[in-house]
Amino acid sequence: MKRVLFPSLALLSVCLACSAAPSRPWRAVVLFDLSGSGSRPSIRAAQLDGFSILARAVAAQGGSVYAESIGGNPSAMSTTPVAVSFTPPPQVEGNGLFEKAHAAKQLEAAVAQAREVLSRPSEGGSDIFSALLLAERIFARAGKNERRYLVLFSDMVEHAGRYDFYRQPLDVKATRSVLATLRRSGMLPRLAGVRVYVAGAGVDPNGTLTSARAVAIERFWHSYFRATGATLATGHYSARLVEFP
Asked: Would the pTM of this model clear 0.85, i.e. be above it?
């Protein structure tokens, strides 16, 4: 009878580690709301704090972070003011010490770029719909293996052109009508596989939103992102980004 030899547990663990898939890089797209409602220094500081948390997480995981602004007409002013890759260059790849130094340098650059964006004067209006089309373009360039994250530092009050979330109806019927109009006009982005975070929801320094209006706005955005194919978990719609992901 032949003896059957079983590999040791140590060898088995090594084999499993070797066969494990490498970690997937992240692509994070940030939208900073620079409208008047978010112009207070305390709100801008909270946005920068949240961005720093996000950037540190991406730096640790590997990947890239980008940012655009939300204003009166973001598509006309798109410059992608934050665009930083944490993927180590070939000359340092594999050297842990140099990889960490590269990530630290890129993290510093990302936070500096975000700080510059948040030092800009406030813009008239809040065209979130157009800004989300800019995010779609950035995600369209993502590799198939990348995890996709979208973070909006915004009160989520669309206030531009024909839309005014301070006043217009946002019940189920009105929401369906808005989404149908956006879809027909090519203004509904394709965000399948994107995980969405909102930081700034309900922040109302001017006291213009009732609690009922804030709830209606939240419900609208949950419907909106479902229509785009993205995922917005209830716990990821909040006033401040305190952890990521």
From this structure: yes
